[in-house]
Amino acid sequence: MKALLCLLTTGLVARFNLVSGLNLTIGNGVLHRRSYFYVGGSYTPTSGSSNESDVVVSSGQMYVEHLVPLTVTHKLPIVIIPGNGMTGTNFLNTPDGRTGWADYFMGQGYELYIADQPSRGRSPWQQNIDGPQMTFDALTIEQRFTATTKFDLWPQAHLHTQWPGNGSRGDPTFDNFYTSIVPALQSNTEASLKVKHAGVALLDRIGTRTSAVSPQPAIVLTHSQSGQFGWLLADARPSLVKAIVAIEPMGPPFINAVFPPFTPARPFGLTEIPVNFLPPINTAADLQTAVVSSTTNFTCIQQVSPPRKLANVSKVPVLLVTSESGYHAVYDSCSVEFLKAAGVSVDHVNLADVGIYGNGHMMFMEKNGQEIVDRVVNKWLKQIV
């Protein structure tokens, strides 16, 4: 039975509904406790100071928003790392005002840690210490994420139907989304080093909060550019990453695709910085590769046989989710092939294959985002954890 409570405070009325005997909703949101903290920072001398032993600032720290529902029913928390130019607001609510994946997970009894990558959003960028930044212009967002049918830059782009609104400047939903986008580090190598350092500190903090003898792992959820960080954290702390949910993770292996220039990238396959392989490698050049297929906007490169295995990442199960119309529909299968050849257990879900149509790269913000997290992500988590 649902219970209804009314709380009168400073003249305001808040409605609370008991959901499945577990957690309360307040209006459209789940009742929870919110706190925040920073991990991974260090005191760094400022460039050009006359006495660098005294003139220091904190750099490299990562903001983490900690959300705990009234009733926690899952002992493993979820760590969420948003993609390029984004902050944790991506998962709090949608640009048109609906509840986001954070509320869904809390409604299921999950504790959440939502990060802003170092040097971005609420994680400070330090002038003269951190590298240069970039900001996505509005046209790029329209072309790649929200109004892809207007531009038709890849074969599946015309299938996009789930973005709320017309996806263009002047539409309130687009404007709300675009104004949330923040400057991000230009260098994926620098971003990788910073997120790995801070992310490991976060996993260590989570892991030892209940027992230093038996550390507690977490589920890591990544999106797009942050996909590479899931592999890095699993490599650095395989015992502290229970599973990875990769929503259209950065790829494909070894080369850029879809959007020119098609330059070499991710020299370790799906990461910019080293991960552990078996047999071990000294440099990225030790990975022997070959082109297995090529089109006008995408080349699939794989390790030659026998492929080296990802020594630590292969210990962690992965769910990789691909939308019907997003540009990752072009190449995610190549990323999956690389992971599987390297010994990683991957469940690859193309949303259209399970009857979920019309989504793009920002699927968790789209009209059917709750269906995706419920039918695909949570269903998989129930099987794994």
TrEMBL record:
What InterPro entries does the record point to?
Answer: AB_hydrolase_1, AB_hydrolase_fold, Carboxylesterase_BioH
The source's superkingdom equals Eukaryota
- Coiled-coil stretches: none
Keyword Signal among UniProt keywords: yes
List membrane-spanning regions. none
> Secretion signal: which residues?
1-21
Q: Where is the AB hydrolase-1 domain?
A: 79-374
- Which keywords does the record carry? Signal
Q: Is Lipid biosynthesis among the key words of this record? A: no
Q: Can you say what this protein is called?
A: AB hydrolase-1 domain-containing protein
